[in-house]
Amino acid sequence: MDVKNLLKNKIISDAIIVKPSLINVSKFINHQIDMNLMYDISTFFVEHFKDKKPNKILTVEASGIIPAGLVAYFMGLPLVYAKKKSPITLGGDVYSRKIFSTTRGEDVPLAISKAYLNENDNILIIDDFLSSGGSVLGLVDILNEARTNIVGFGVIIEKGFEQGRSRIEEMGIDVFSLIRIKSIENGIEFDT
Amino acid sequence: MDVKNLLKNKIISDAIIVKPSLINVSKFINHQIDMNLMYDISTFFVEHFKDKKPNKILTVEASGIIPAGLVAYFMGLPLVYAKKKSPITLGGDVYSRKIFSTTRGEDVPLAISKAYLNENDNILIIDDFLSSGGSVLGLVDILNEARTNIVGFGVIIEKGFEQGRSRIEEMGIDVFSLIRIKSIENGIEFDT
To answer: What is the pTM of this model?
Structure first.
């Protein structure tokens, strides 16, 4: 079975609908992690993005780390993850933004040390979920301030009924999601 | 060069001494991650722990996720990471503890959903740093409450001048560190 159908089946069998806009995939993606499924997902991203020739993979802690880390490993590249910490805690020279966290329902800080970004970087962003796009837009904002080139954004699950994709595409960034959820109103329906 | 010497060289060249008890390895371990080095480290852990036959790898977000995830992947096992979130944010039935974070200088919550631990589990814990052992002891406490069997604890860098090892060994847990730092008083000195 291909990875899209594997993932859809997993979502149908194991995701929990929390409310009509929110599913919980903590059984296999972001608390307990099915590493075999993550291998399949990551190698699919590697295949999709290999011609973009990134030199660094970026994500946001904590749930983006596994898919982004595997993509980095299979591409032979370093991984950098933005920390959800105040710049003070991180110490030194950092880029920072405040982002709105859908899951926490509040603003959280996002920070990356300036030492790990530079204007020669070709950045591929990988994350687990795309909803309103808040965390990725914060990340993009930091990457723009650091004058890096963003070659694309790969995400495992996109909520097609939220505005994340259009907000990120407006920044001129290529968005690629493995699967897109159309609606969670009457069970989980997929677009692609 | 073997992985221990690779890592020591990396620490000598790239770690920053923050104060005599604290080094910053964010250039290659816990902010920007050298995935090739992490591969070498993880396969070393896999070799060391394979006879213990774990069925699940546990760690604490966020910096433990890469080494623990790679160990899980190479062993063909699921990864579970404890979240530094309040049980309320996590929702549902969770085990939770408060732990003292050395890096943050304050108590942080630690939580794992009850769904992902059970009394038939043979748990291998993997983390990046062992200092006072606070987060691992919180994790061990949760794992004991869940009646799991803990087969060992593997850590990349141990600070030999702190009490983490003895506190964890007192719980009857086998502690294996890749390298042990003896002192950071006059530059970085290694024990093993």
So the answer is: 0.96
